[in-house]
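Q: What changes when adenosine-5'-triphosphate is included in the input?
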Amino acid sequence: MAEVLLNVSGLKVAYGGIQAVKGVDFEVREGELVTLIGSNGAGKTTTMKAITGLLPLAGGDIQYLGKSIRGRGAWDLVKQGLAMVPEGRGVFTRMTITENLQMGAHIRNDTAEIARDMDKVFGIFPRLRERRDQLAGTMSGGEQQMLAMGRALMSRPRVLLLDEPSMGLSPIMVDKIFEVVREVHGQGVTVFLVEQNASRALQIADRAYVMESGVITMSGEAKQMLSDPKVRAAYLGE
Ligand code: ATP
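A: The predicted holo structure follows.
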């Protein structure tokens, strides 16, 4: 079996006195595309924020490559190969597209390779190439999502963490984003995808975890979950 890259065990996260994540376990192995699905308010984003050091842990541990990354900041994680695309994108609105992509490569100094990777990102997202000198803040939600993904790819991540990449996007843009996630995964990047769009996420994932009210209620092969009547009834609107 492939190496465990990300291992979350007994994770608890609280807002004040309220526990939003109540002891969650899951793992992501090298080469996998793992999705965490669940309805609104289940605790998915909270889990992602704990992994990337944006929220403190109230219990448990998060390990990357066998070592605890509790409390590590985003910068440190990116250096170790763990890049995140946050919910709401988080692009630098007053910078151009090109500048945003350059920021994604800030941990690198291989100038020629950076230029080549930027060209690759422009190949995946031709819209970004067309608008390379435009300020990111003036772009549509879908374009900003593309940019946030492109920026994360510029760090050459080993693991890509995506928080609800399809949120608020038009159906065409959602198609594009899922296509790109599948493509990036196909190129060998391990992906951990938090999604509310369970149907689409299960279609491209290898394995899935379902979260409800701060706990994992189900897990398994994505294909099997897609045909599971309980999953279909609760998350696929049937
Ligand atoms: P969504 O798809 O809506 O983002 P989610 O599964 O990502 O849902 P979270 O955003 O992690 O859910 O929220 C989990 C719980 O924590 C919810 O009950 C939410 O109201 C609560 N919560 C989230 N952010 C805060 C906050 N800053 N302060 C207090 N409670 C919060």
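Observations recorded in class: Residues 178 and 200 are 8 Å apart (CA to CA).
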